[in-house]
Amino acid sequence: MVPLSYYLMLSGILFACGVAGFLIKRNIITIFMSIELMLNGVNLSFVAFAAHWHALAGQVFVFFVMVVAAAEAAVGLAIIIAVYRTRETLNIDQVNLLKL
Amino acid sequence: MSFHLILFLAFGAVCVGGAINLLAQTHPINSALSLIAVMAALAGEYLLLGAEFVAAVQVIVYAGAIMVLFVFVIMLLNAGVEEHTKGSRVAILFGVPGMLIGGVLLAWVLLRHSGTESVAIGALPGPPKEIAQLLFHDFLLPFEVTSVLILIAIMGAVVLASKPPASRTESSPAGKVD
Q1: pTM, full prediction
Q2: Interface probe, candidates B26, B62, B121, chain A, greatest A C-beta count within 10 A
Q3: Would you tell me which residues 94-153 of chain B have a C-beta closer than 8 angstroms to some C-beta of chain A?
Q4: How many structural domains compose chain B?
Q5: Are B152 and B76 members of one domain?
Q6: Given A21, A52, A60, which is nearest B22 (Cβ)?
Q7: CA–CA separation, B36 vs B32, rounded Å?
Q8: ipTM for the complex?
Q9: What is the dihedral sign for C-alpha B85, B87, B91, B93?
């Protein structure tokens, strides 16, 4: 038997690592992966609460989060490809203008 | 120490280790591989919570499809080792203490105020049949809206990633119908 707070702590640790990666990393692809890590942390707390409150709707929400994450990954990676094509760099510090 | 707790700690250790490794690595392909490890371990945690369908979807969609897309783009753009700049040092200086303070506060609140009830192994079995009834009955409208969202995302990805026209002076023939 594992207390609910342990699952929430693990979820919080994953979310905090995602936030830290978002702030620290300079590569635009790694920043994008940090966002995925944050989404995964939130998903874990959804499933833990679903098991705790005996509500299956939490697992359906996880399904929707995954669908939105997939759509976001497709569009985001296309944007990264477009940025790389115009600037030829992936360093976020050199992508500081909206217009060339 | 129950078997359930041992399994939870083992999968949790893989999760946290992979997440920290994602921060520590400088090459994006190493970060992507550690993120795949995190997602696989999270699927184990979902199985411990009895969410079989979510665990299967986590492996297939997240660790499979989405991460393959990431690795594909990393290979395509030939991403190299990232260089540290002044901005990232400032982010480390302020971000790491802020993250530690936030984590300690969160842990204190959770341990202090959340109940001590435990989640049993397989306490709430999430078989695909019941999830499907919920998904196609109670959540039918969000489900259908999601399909439109995916269609828009596909079209947006194709438009964004396609090559821009070679010259602006050429008028596009597709717009004209004579």
Answers
A1: 0.85
A2: B62
A3: 95-96, 99, 102-103, 106-107, 110-111, 114-121, 123-124, 126, 130-131, 134-135, 138-139, 142, 146, 149-150, 152-153
A4: 2
A5: no
A6: A21
A7: 6
A8: 0.92
A9: positive
